[in-house]
Amino acid sequence: MTDTMLKTKNSGDIFRIVYALKQCTRQQISVQLSLSLPTVTHNLKQLIEQGLVYNAGAHQSTGGRKANLYRCVANSRLALGIDITKHHLSLVLINLNLEIVDKKRIRCVFCDSDSYFENMSRELQDILSKNHVNDGRLLGVGISMPAIINSDQKSISYAEVIQVGENIYERMAGHITYPFLLFNDANSAGLAESWISDTSNDMTYLFLGGSVGGAHMTGKQIQYGSNQRGGEFGHMCIAPGGNLCYCGQKGCLDAYCSAKILSDFTGGNLGAFFEELKAGENLGYRRIFDQYMNNLALAVKNLRMCYDSDIVLGGAVGSYMSDYIDEFRNKVAALDPFEKEMDFIRVCHYKTEAAAVGSAIYYINAFIEGL
Hints:
Structural class: alpha/beta
Number of strands: 14
Shape: globular
Largest sheet: 5 strands, mixed
Strand order of the largest sheet: 5-4-3-6-9
CATH architecture of the largest domain: 2-Layer Sandwich
CATH class of the largest domain: Alpha Beta
CATH topology of the largest domain: Nucleotidyltransferase, domain 5
Protein backbone atom coordinates (compact mmCIF):
# COMPACT_ATOMS: atom_id res chain seq x y z
CA MET A 1 0.00 0.00 0.00
CA THR A 2 1.47 3.39 -1.01
CA ASP A 3 1.78 6.31 1.40
CA THR A 4 -1.04 8.11 -0.42
CA MET A 5 -3.33 5.08 -0.19
CA LEU A 6 -2.49 4.64 3.49
CA LYS A 7 -3.26 8.28 4.25
CA THR A 8 -6.55 8.00 2.41
CA LYS A 9 -7.44 4.81 4.30
CA ASN A 10 -6.56 6.42 7.63
CA SER A 11 -8.69 9.43 6.83
CA GLY A 12 -11.66 7.27 5.87
CA ASP A 13 -11.27 5.03 8.92
CA ILE A 14 -11.15 8.04 11.22
CA PHE A 15 -14.26 9.56 9.68
CA ARG A 16 -16.11 6.26 10.04
CA ILE A 17 -15.17 6.07 13.73
CA VAL A 18 -16.37 9.63 14.34
CA TYR A 19 -19.57 8.86 12.43
CA ALA A 20 -20.25 5.57 14.26
CA LEU A 21 -19.58 6.96 17.75
CA LYS A 22 -21.44 10.24 17.08
CA GLN A 23 -18.68 12.07 18.94
CA CYS A 24 -15.24 11.06 20.13
CA THR A 25 -11.83 12.32 21.22
CA ARG A 26 -8.47 11.95 19.50
CA GLN A 27 -7.48 9.47 22.19
CA GLN A 28 -10.53 7.29 21.51
CA ILE A 29 -9.77 7.27 17.78
CA SER A 30 -6.13 6.42 18.47
CA VAL A 31 -7.10 3.43 20.61
CA GLN A 32 -9.85 2.20 18.27
CA LEU A 33 -7.62 2.28 15.16
CA SER A 34 -4.22 1.67 16.74
CA LEU A 35 -2.91 4.89 15.20
CA SER A 36 -0.50 7.37 16.74
CA LEU A 37 -1.92 10.61 18.08
CA PRO A 38 0.05 12.73 15.54
CA THR A 39 -1.44 10.64 12.70
CA VAL A 40 -4.95 11.08 14.13
CA THR A 41 -4.39 14.82 14.58
CA HIS A 42 -3.14 15.26 11.02
CA ASN A 43 -6.09 13.39 9.50
CA LEU A 44 -8.64 15.17 11.68
CA LYS A 45 -7.22 18.48 10.47
CA GLN A 46 -7.71 17.36 6.87
CA LEU A 47 -11.27 16.22 7.55
CA ILE A 48 -12.02 19.57 9.18
CA GLU A 49 -10.60 21.42 6.16
CA GLN A 50 -12.81 19.28 3.91
CA GLY A 51 -15.85 20.31 5.95
CA LEU A 52 -16.63 16.74 7.02
CA VAL A 53 -15.70 16.94 10.72
CA TYR A 54 -15.73 19.75 13.29
CA ASN A 55 -14.29 20.36 16.73
CA ALA A 56 -17.27 20.32 19.10
CA GLY A 57 -15.39 21.69 22.09
CA ALA A 58 -13.97 20.24 25.26
CA HIS A 59 -15.11 16.96 26.74
CA GLN A 60 -16.12 17.23 30.39
CA SER A 61 -13.23 15.83 32.42
CA THR A 62 -12.85 14.56 35.96
CA GLY A 63 -9.38 16.01 36.14
CA GLY A 64 -6.48 17.13 34.00
CA ARG A 65 -6.63 18.72 30.58
CA LYS A 66 -9.99 18.45 28.84
CA ALA A 67 -9.97 16.56 25.54
CA ASN A 68 -11.71 17.98 22.49
CA LEU A 69 -14.68 16.15 20.99
CA TYR A 70 -15.04 15.67 17.25
CA ARG A 71 -18.27 15.18 15.35
CA CYS A 72 -19.17 14.77 11.71
CA VAL A 73 -20.76 17.73 9.91
CA ALA A 74 -24.16 16.19 9.29
CA ASN A 75 -25.20 18.59 6.52
CA SER A 76 -21.93 18.38 4.63
CA ARG A 77 -23.58 15.79 2.38
CA LEU A 78 -27.24 15.15 1.65
CA ALA A 79 -29.24 12.52 -0.17
CA LEU A 80 -32.74 12.68 -1.60
CA GLY A 81 -35.27 9.88 -1.38
CA ILE A 82 -38.41 9.70 -3.51
CA ASP A 83 -41.22 7.26 -2.80
CA ILE A 84 -43.67 6.54 -5.60
CA THR A 85 -47.00 5.01 -4.61
CA LYS A 86 -50.19 4.49 -6.55
CA HIS A 87 -51.68 7.75 -5.34
CA HIS A 88 -48.86 9.81 -3.78
CA LEU A 89 -45.38 11.12 -4.39
CA SER A 90 -43.11 11.75 -1.39
CA LEU A 91 -39.74 13.48 -1.36
CA VAL A 92 -37.39 13.46 1.65
CA LEU A 93 -34.03 15.20 1.98
CA ILE A 94 -31.78 13.63 4.63
CA ASN A 95 -28.32 14.38 5.96
CA LEU A 96 -25.50 12.07 7.07
CA ASN A 97 -27.16 11.59 10.48
CA LEU A 98 -30.37 10.43 8.74
CA GLU A 99 -32.12 13.54 9.99
CA ILE A 100 -34.91 14.75 7.74
CA VAL A 101 -33.85 18.18 6.50
CA ASP A 102 -37.01 18.71 4.46
CA LYS A 103 -39.87 16.65 3.07
CA LYS A 104 -42.90 16.99 0.86
CA ARG A 105 -45.82 14.69 0.12
CA ILE A 106 -48.30 15.38 -2.65
CA ARG A 107 -51.30 13.51 -3.95
CA CYS A 108 -50.28 12.42 -7.42
CA VAL A 109 -51.72 9.40 -9.22
CA PHE A 110 -48.91 7.37 -10.76
CA CYS A 111 -48.68 7.17 -14.52
CA ASP A 112 -45.72 5.85 -16.48
CA SER A 113 -45.54 8.97 -18.62
CA ASP A 114 -43.18 11.83 -19.43
CA SER A 115 -45.58 14.30 -17.83
CA TYR A 116 -45.47 12.40 -14.51
CA PHE A 117 -41.66 12.22 -14.54
CA GLU A 118 -41.40 15.87 -15.50
CA ASN A 119 -43.58 16.78 -12.53
CA MET A 120 -41.42 14.59 -10.28
CA SER A 121 -38.33 16.36 -11.60
CA ARG A 122 -39.83 19.76 -10.81
CA GLU A 123 -40.66 18.70 -7.26
CA LEU A 124 -37.13 17.32 -6.87
CA GLN A 125 -35.56 20.54 -8.07
CA ASP A 126 -37.86 22.64 -5.89
CA ILE A 127 -36.84 20.90 -2.67
CA LEU A 128 -33.14 21.14 -3.58
CA SER A 129 -33.42 24.82 -4.48
CA LYS A 130 -35.39 25.60 -1.33
CA ASN A 131 -32.61 24.10 0.78
CA HIS A 132 -29.75 25.58 -1.29
CA VAL A 133 -28.32 22.15 -2.13
CA ASN A 134 -25.62 22.27 -4.79
CA ASP A 135 -24.30 19.35 -6.82
CA GLY A 136 -21.28 18.94 -4.55
CA ARG A 137 -23.41 18.24 -1.48
CA LEU A 138 -26.03 16.01 -3.08
CA LEU A 139 -24.85 12.41 -3.12
CA GLY A 140 -27.67 11.04 -5.23
CA VAL A 141 -31.37 10.28 -5.51
CA GLY A 142 -32.99 7.00 -4.46
CA ILE A 143 -36.42 6.21 -5.89
CA SER A 144 -38.56 3.59 -4.16
CA MET A 145 -41.69 2.00 -5.57
CA PRO A 146 -43.91 -1.05 -5.01
CA ALA A 147 -42.09 -3.31 -7.45
CA ILE A 148 -39.37 -5.97 -7.43
CA ILE A 149 -36.18 -4.28 -8.60
CA ASN A 150 -33.39 -6.25 -10.24
CA SER A 151 -29.86 -6.20 -8.80
CA ASP A 152 -28.78 -3.56 -11.30
CA GLN A 153 -31.15 -1.15 -9.48
CA LYS A 154 -32.32 0.06 -12.89
CA SER A 155 -34.78 -2.55 -14.15
CA ILE A 156 -37.95 -4.12 -12.79
CA SER A 157 -38.80 -7.82 -12.80
CA TYR A 158 -42.32 -7.61 -11.32
CA ALA A 159 -44.85 -4.83 -10.77
CA GLU A 160 -48.58 -5.20 -10.24
CA VAL A 161 -49.47 -2.49 -7.71
CA ILE A 162 -48.40 0.14 -10.23
CA GLN A 163 -48.04 -0.41 -13.96
CA VAL A 164 -44.58 0.40 -15.26
CA GLY A 165 -42.81 -0.14 -18.56
CA GLU A 166 -39.57 -2.06 -18.94
CA ASN A 167 -37.61 1.08 -19.80
CA ILE A 168 -38.74 3.15 -16.82
CA TYR A 169 -35.17 3.96 -15.73
CA GLU A 170 -34.27 5.34 -19.15
CA ARG A 171 -37.52 7.32 -19.18
CA MET A 172 -36.74 8.84 -15.79
CA ALA A 173 -33.15 9.56 -16.83
CA GLY A 174 -34.48 11.97 -19.42
CA HIS A 175 -35.80 14.15 -16.59
CA ILE A 176 -33.38 13.60 -13.66
CA THR A 177 -29.90 15.06 -14.02
CA TYR A 178 -28.53 13.60 -10.78
CA PRO A 179 -27.25 10.06 -10.08
CA PHE A 180 -30.26 7.91 -9.19
CA LEU A 181 -31.23 4.28 -8.66
CA LEU A 182 -34.45 2.33 -8.11
CA PHE A 183 -35.40 0.47 -4.91
CA ASN A 184 -38.23 -1.68 -3.61
CA ASP A 185 -40.35 0.34 -1.19
CA ALA A 186 -40.66 -2.27 1.57
CA ASN A 187 -36.94 -3.12 1.43
CA SER A 188 -36.12 0.58 1.68
CA ALA A 189 -38.43 1.12 4.64
CA GLY A 190 -36.83 -1.82 6.44
CA LEU A 191 -33.36 -0.46 5.76
CA ALA A 192 -34.32 2.92 7.20
CA GLU A 193 -35.66 1.25 10.32
CA SER A 194 -32.54 -0.87 10.83
CA TRP A 195 -30.22 2.13 10.44
CA ILE A 196 -32.14 4.30 12.93
CA SER A 197 -32.48 1.46 15.45
CA ASP A 198 -30.26 1.36 18.53
CA THR A 199 -29.98 -2.43 18.43
CA SER A 200 -27.55 -4.55 16.46
CA ASN A 201 -29.93 -7.54 16.52
CA ASP A 202 -31.14 -9.09 13.30
CA MET A 203 -34.40 -7.47 12.31
CA THR A 204 -37.41 -8.43 10.21
CA TYR A 205 -39.47 -5.51 9.00
CA LEU A 206 -43.11 -6.07 8.08
CA PHE A 207 -44.40 -3.35 5.76
CA LEU A 208 -48.17 -2.86 6.17
CA GLY A 209 -49.02 -0.30 3.52
CA GLY A 210 -51.15 -0.27 0.40
CA SER A 211 -49.52 -3.63 -0.17
CA VAL A 212 -47.71 -5.92 2.26
CA GLY A 213 -43.99 -6.56 1.98
CA GLY A 214 -40.92 -6.28 4.09
CA ALA A 215 -37.25 -7.01 4.52
CA HIS A 216 -34.94 -9.10 6.66
CA MET A 217 -31.78 -7.37 7.85
CA THR A 218 -28.56 -8.84 9.19
CA GLY A 219 -26.09 -6.28 10.47
CA LYS A 220 -28.10 -3.48 8.83
CA GLN A 221 -27.76 -5.22 5.48
CA ILE A 222 -30.81 -6.40 3.53
CA GLN A 223 -30.93 -10.09 2.66
CA TYR A 224 -32.31 -9.85 -0.88
CA GLY A 225 -32.31 -13.54 -1.78
CA SER A 226 -31.29 -15.17 -5.06
CA ASN A 227 -33.85 -13.31 -7.16
CA GLN A 228 -34.23 -10.04 -5.22
CA ARG A 229 -37.50 -11.35 -3.80
CA GLY A 230 -36.45 -11.76 -0.18
CA GLY A 231 -39.01 -10.11 2.09
CA GLU A 232 -42.05 -10.64 -0.15
CA PHE A 233 -44.01 -11.51 2.98
CA GLY A 234 -47.26 -10.31 1.47
CA HIS A 235 -47.41 -13.46 -0.62
CA MET A 236 -47.07 -15.93 2.24
CA CYS A 237 -50.24 -18.00 2.35
CA ILE A 238 -52.06 -17.72 5.69
CA ALA A 239 -55.48 -19.01 4.50
CA PRO A 240 -55.34 -21.66 1.75
CA GLY A 241 -58.14 -21.09 -0.75
CA GLY A 242 -58.99 -17.79 0.97
CA ASN A 243 -59.33 -14.23 -0.28
CA LEU A 244 -57.96 -13.36 -3.72
CA CYS A 245 -54.66 -11.47 -3.78
CA TYR A 246 -53.66 -9.05 -6.54
CA CYS A 247 -50.98 -11.58 -7.55
CA GLY A 248 -53.73 -13.99 -8.63
CA GLN A 249 -53.29 -16.48 -5.79
CA LYS A 250 -55.68 -17.01 -2.90
CA GLY A 251 -55.03 -16.66 0.82
CA CYS A 252 -51.96 -14.39 0.66
CA LEU A 253 -51.18 -12.21 3.68
CA ASP A 254 -51.61 -9.13 1.47
CA ALA A 255 -55.29 -9.97 1.02
CA TYR A 256 -55.76 -9.90 4.81
CA CYS A 257 -53.32 -7.33 6.20
CA SER A 258 -52.77 -4.52 3.70
CA ALA A 259 -53.77 -1.09 4.97
CA LYS A 260 -56.72 -1.17 2.58
CA ILE A 261 -58.39 -3.88 4.65
CA LEU A 262 -58.97 -1.19 7.27
CA SER A 263 -59.03 2.05 5.30
CA ASP A 264 -61.68 0.85 2.85
CA PHE A 265 -64.20 1.24 5.68
CA THR A 266 -63.45 4.97 5.93
CA GLY A 267 -63.20 5.97 2.29
CA GLY A 268 -59.50 5.22 2.03
CA ASN A 269 -58.58 7.29 5.11
CA LEU A 270 -56.63 5.02 7.47
CA GLY A 271 -56.32 7.76 10.08
CA ALA A 272 -60.10 8.09 10.21
CA PHE A 273 -60.43 4.34 10.84
CA PHE A 274 -58.11 4.51 13.84
CA GLU A 275 -59.83 7.63 15.16
CA GLU A 276 -63.14 5.75 15.12
CA LEU A 277 -61.46 2.73 16.68
CA LYS A 278 -59.98 4.81 19.48
CA ALA A 279 -63.33 6.47 20.17
CA GLY A 280 -64.61 2.98 20.97
CA GLU A 281 -68.19 3.55 19.85
CA ASN A 282 -68.15 1.49 16.65
CA LEU A 283 -68.15 -2.17 17.68
CA GLY A 284 -68.03 -3.22 14.04
CA TYR A 285 -64.67 -1.50 13.59
CA ARG A 286 -63.43 -3.20 16.75
CA ARG A 287 -64.35 -6.63 15.37
CA ILE A 288 -62.69 -5.82 12.06
CA PHE A 289 -59.49 -4.75 13.80
CA ASP A 290 -59.50 -7.81 16.05
CA GLN A 291 -59.64 -10.06 13.00
CA TYR A 292 -56.95 -7.99 11.32
CA MET A 293 -54.67 -8.46 14.34
CA ASN A 294 -55.44 -12.19 14.46
CA ASN A 295 -54.26 -12.57 10.86
CA LEU A 296 -51.26 -10.36 11.48
CA ALA A 297 -50.34 -12.32 14.60
CA LEU A 298 -50.21 -15.53 12.57
CA ALA A 299 -47.84 -13.88 10.09
CA VAL A 300 -45.60 -12.49 12.84
CA LYS A 301 -45.48 -15.88 14.58
CA ASN A 302 -44.42 -17.49 11.29
CA LEU A 303 -41.75 -14.85 10.69
CA ARG A 304 -40.39 -15.39 14.20
CA MET A 305 -40.22 -19.13 13.53
CA CYS A 306 -38.35 -18.50 10.25
CA TYR A 307 -35.87 -15.83 11.35
CA ASP A 308 -35.80 -15.83 15.18
CA SER A 309 -35.22 -12.07 14.94
CA ASP A 310 -36.69 -8.82 16.18
CA ILE A 311 -39.86 -7.93 14.26
CA VAL A 312 -40.88 -4.36 13.48
CA LEU A 313 -44.40 -3.43 12.39
CA GLY A 314 -44.08 -0.69 9.80
CA GLY A 315 -45.86 0.97 6.93
CA ALA A 316 -49.10 2.91 7.30
CA VAL A 317 -50.71 0.47 9.76
CA GLY A 318 -47.53 0.07 11.79
CA SER A 319 -47.50 3.79 12.50
CA TYR A 320 -50.80 3.41 14.39
CA MET A 321 -49.96 0.26 16.34
CA SER A 322 -48.37 1.84 19.44
CA ASP A 323 -51.71 2.01 21.27
CA TYR A 324 -52.36 -1.67 20.56
CA ILE A 325 -48.90 -3.23 20.79
CA ASP A 326 -49.46 -4.96 24.16
CA GLU A 327 -52.73 -6.45 22.95
CA PHE A 328 -51.09 -7.58 19.74
CA ARG A 329 -48.13 -9.13 21.56
CA ASN A 330 -50.58 -11.19 23.60
CA LYS A 331 -52.14 -12.53 20.41
CA VAL A 332 -48.74 -13.60 19.11
CA ALA A 333 -47.81 -15.10 22.48
CA ALA A 334 -50.87 -17.34 22.31
CA LEU A 335 -49.52 -18.82 19.05
CA ASP A 336 -45.84 -19.11 19.94
CA PRO A 337 -44.73 -22.54 21.23
CA PHE A 338 -41.38 -21.35 22.61
CA GLU A 339 -41.71 -18.02 24.37
CA LYS A 340 -44.24 -15.76 26.05
CA GLU A 341 -42.19 -12.58 26.35
CA MET A 342 -42.89 -10.65 23.16
CA ASP A 343 -40.54 -7.68 23.53
CA PHE A 344 -39.00 -8.63 20.20
CA ILE A 345 -42.10 -7.15 18.52
CA ARG A 346 -42.01 -3.38 18.27
CA VAL A 347 -43.51 -0.51 16.32
CA CYS A 348 -41.60 1.38 13.63
CA HIS A 349 -39.58 4.51 14.36
CA TYR A 350 -40.46 6.19 11.07
CA LYS A 351 -44.21 6.80 11.11
CA THR A 352 -44.14 8.25 7.60
CA GLU A 353 -41.76 8.37 4.63
CA ALA A 354 -39.66 5.36 5.71
CA ALA A 355 -39.36 4.10 2.12
CA ALA A 356 -38.09 7.46 0.88
CA VAL A 357 -35.55 7.68 3.71
CA GLY A 358 -34.36 4.12 3.06
CA SER A 359 -33.81 4.71 -0.63
CA ALA A 360 -31.68 7.78 0.19
CA ILE A 361 -29.63 5.80 2.75
CA TYR A 362 -27.99 3.88 -0.12
CA TYR A 363 -26.08 7.02 -1.06
CA ILE A 364 -25.24 7.91 2.55
CA ASN A 365 -23.77 4.44 3.06
CA ALA A 366 -21.88 4.52 -0.24
CA PHE A 367 -20.31 7.86 0.71
CA ILE A 368 -19.26 6.73 4.19
CA GLU A 369 -17.85 3.42 2.99
CA GLY A 370 -16.13 5.05 0.01
CA LEU A 371 -14.07 7.61 1.92
